[in-house]
Amino acid sequence: MKFTIFASVLAAASPVQAVTTPEQRKGNLTIALFADSQADSCGANDISNAISLTTNSIPVSFTCFNVLDTFSRSNNSTTGFQPGAANYHDDGEQRNGVAWLLQNKHLYDGNANYSRVWYSQVNTSRVDPGKAGKWVFYTYALPNCEQLAKGRPSRPNDHPWYETSCQTSVDGQCRVTAGPIVSFAINTAVGYNPAHDGCATWGKLGAASSLRQGAGTRVLTVVSVMAIWLLS
To answer: Which residue positions does the secretion signal occupy (predicted)?
Structure first.
């Protein structure tokens, strides 16, 4: 894995420590997006030339990111804080939102089709791929983490979203979506995993498969067939 974050930049965003090796990735959530032309890099777990976001924040509410707003040149920052969607107060050290660090934002291409996502969620102690993690990660085909298009007839399957809350290995994992990822979200899994009898494994339309799990999202509950994601 090729992944370098400078300690001084990372410290400015949050208490996350410098991440220069897979071993040091423990305790963080890292998300990288790949254009279709970068399929081989995603499949090789090489995010050195991919736009990515890293955090160790576990938000107290659903926190949404638009890909364009986050990675385009209009955002001049490589570190920052994204508030959560719900009107909650911070819970001790757990804030209502996500402190983030961006890598390779200068490589963002507004014309690219970002249909591949690499995801790493590893506990600080024991590494348990496939076991319940601390975060729920969602991807959406619409802006603002919407599930249905506004202003016109729309069905959930027209704009599929996906969710996962399981741990990965330290090398992470690459997945392919049915279309471009326009927005994504991060939330705490503290209530999600127990409510669904385990973690979700890349569920489509909120109907996750894994550990006897079905899943729902914050706005719309959809009963659908299990989605099988393609390994890149």
So the answer is: 1-18
